[in-house]
Amino acid sequence: MKRSTLIAGISAGLLFILILIFGLRDIHRFRPDPSADPVGDSAKNVPTIRFVKNPQPVPAFTILSLDGQTISPAHLDGKVVLLNFWATWCPPCREEIPDLIELQDKYGGRLQIIGLSVDTGSQETVKRFVEERKINYPVAIASPELEAKFGGVMGLPTSFLVDTEGRVVQKHVGLHEPVLYDREIRALLGGPVEAKIETFDDTGQVLLANAKNATELPGVDLSKLTPKQKKAALRQLNEQKCTCGCDLTLAQCRINDTSCSVSPGLAKHLVDRVVAGK
User: Tens place of pLDDT for every residue, the chain, 278 residues?
Assistant: First the structure.
């Protein structure tokens, strides 16, 4: 073998070894670090469900379903309950009914969905609708008094979620993905759930009666008040009625209906009087 050929072969071999060494080093250097990769961090993609921290008992009521069944919180002990205010003429309500039927089927006796119709027509119309849709949970007509116990129903559908101890832990207004209800129900039943569970203080956003716990109100400027003045203003805001026709206190009206054009002026006048020491 010629000397030049031997040298070329040795050089090529050495070059291959060097490429291999440095290549492996660089592969290790640029290998993604799962702990530093936001896409690979599954915890960041876990959904969150939220429940009231210190929930209050569901308001007392006794109603008669369309099929003659007496319903009250006393009959629902140990079950997760979904109180669903709806109407036959409400498109989102009609859209979510198949999902509610499926949830009732899935959880059986551990869950009780109750449809509370706010229809103002005849009961026969609602009953016919229930039969046509093959609704598998009890449906009753919601009286204005029942709506008032839950702070009024400003939008449809509105659902109140009650835990197995008869406490209201969440409220949902409008149409939601059924997976949200599924996660919440499973969590309240103590089952495994791929979600982060958080708690929050109810300051009227779930049960309006808890507006008394609020330290801030939508559209009401309390920033210029001393702690003593703020306490006095909040007490009066929870005592004085709004005159818009809602039959709620000013605090409740501001939480329940931020579009109200009456309560902001009344609340401002009240706050100004507190500042002036009147």
Answer: 444 444 445 455 544 444 444 443 333 333 333 333 333 344 568 999 999 999 999 999 999 999 999 999 999 989 999 999 999 999 999 999 999 999 999 999 999 999 999 999 999 999 999 999 999 999 999 999 999 999 989 899 999 999 999 999 999 999 999 999 999 999 999 999 999 999 999 999 999 999 999 999 999 999 999 999 999 999 999 999 999 999 899 999 999 999 999 999 999 999 999 999 98
- Residue whose C-alpha is closest to residue 111's, from 207, 178, 204, 205: 178
**Is the domain of 179 the same as that of 62?**
yes
In a domain? residue 160: yes
| Percent of the chain that is helix, strand, coil (3-state, to 5) | 45, 20, 40
Residue 136's closest CA among 177, 82, 92, 90? Answer: 82
27 token code pair: 């592969």
State both tokens at 3. Answer: 């000397």
β-pairing, 139-141 with 111-117? parallel
- Residue 68 DSSP symbol: S
Does 122 share its domain with 258?
no
Q: Residue 159 region, left (φ>0) first, then alpha (ψ -120 to 50), else beta?
A: beta
Task: Map residue 50 onto helix, strand or coil.
Answer: strand
